[in-house]
Amino acid sequence: MKSNWNDSAALNGNHNRHSHERAAVEVTAKGILDSRSLPDSDFDSLWESIVLEPRTKDRLLSQAILNFTLRGKLDRASIPLHGIILLVGPPGTGKTSLARGLASKTAKSCGGKGFHFLEVEPHVLASASLGKSQQGVRQLLGTVIAEQAAYGPVIVLLDEVETLAADRSKMSLEANPVDVHRATDAVLAQLDQLAVNYPHLLFVATSNFPKAIDAAFLSRVDQIITIDLPGAEACQKIAADTLAVLGTKFHKIELLLKQRECEELGKRCLGLDGRQIRKAVLSSLTLHKATAVDPNQLTIEDVLAAIHDAKAESKHAKQWQQ
Fold it and tell me: Quick one: 222 and 237 in the same domain?
């Protein structure tokens, strides 16, 4: 049955009467990690905190908006949009935060009414019991998410999507249970059905390992955006923003931003991801006991030393992984 979101029934008292039931189903359903109405101020803050080229953010937001303004009006036989955006890149580059922020910004750009957000926890769907993963996928996509999409526009975050849509061509039936293969089959089948029946449903998927994603899933993606490690300018903004936030609580830290040495932060941070940069700045408060007691005693030399340590630790971690 196709969604009637465009019909007045989706916006009348029938929608309001079921709103409480909708929230209750989402919170208790297996595989749903988060559920909330959009727009959301916390998600807006996440969007602002991710430092990317404005062009990348604009293109991403435009694609998401297009899903709700255009997809339902097109003949899928000619233009087979599936309502899927994929964010790929190294860990720590802010893909999940960006996806959450995108959901809120999209809802706001589309009028800000009736939008809902769901975040899927794919790992809980995995099961050692034959057939259970496949059943879990069908229940989550074909029932839970489909029911929510019938109420109105929904944006779903599929974090670490390779868990649900693993590359079948790289699997051995001896090493991997047949259930893993069938789970990927189920994901693809359900996505096709959802794309047909619910044009006001958008999936935003993320992956640290795009090579592990099944090719058939990738062929269904409407837009793929790569989020790389930040360049020197972005590193500078991330480090400076972290200091500025600390400065709102400890005002002498704000003065560090005016020091000439602060201009070196971006170059010194090259090779670190956004999360590592923010943690390095925070860890500079731990270099001396006196600074931990009174963060106002932080110096720019402390920050640079902590960044140096973070890069050394990152290098060692990569060596351990090889």
Answer: no
108 with 191, same domain? yes
DSSP code, position 166 = B
Structure tokens at 53: 């080229």
The one-letter code for the residue type at 99 is A
How far, in Å, CA of 132 to CA of 129, rounded? 6
Which residue bears the tokens 């249970």? 177
Q: Which two tokens stand for residue 240?
A: 């400076």
In a domain, 162, yes or no: yes
Q: Do residues 182 and 238 share a domain?
A: no
Write out pLDDT tens, residues 71-120.
Answer: 888 887 788 889 999 999 999 999 999 999 999 999 999 998 899 999 99
For the beta sheet containing 154-158, the strands, ordered from the edge strand earlier in sequence to the opposite edge, are 32-37, 116-120, 154-158, 201-207, 84-88, 223-226
Q: What is the CA radius of gyration of the chain?
A: 22
Predicted TM-score (pTM) of this structure: 0.84
DSSP designation for 229: P
Residue 249's CB is within 10 A of a number of other CB atoms, namely 9
Domain region containing 280: 232-314
**Cα(16)–Cα(18) distance, rounded to whole angstroms?**
5
| Domain count across the chain | 2
Q: Is residue 67 part of a domain?
A: yes
Q: Let me know whether 75 and 95 are in one domain.
A: yes
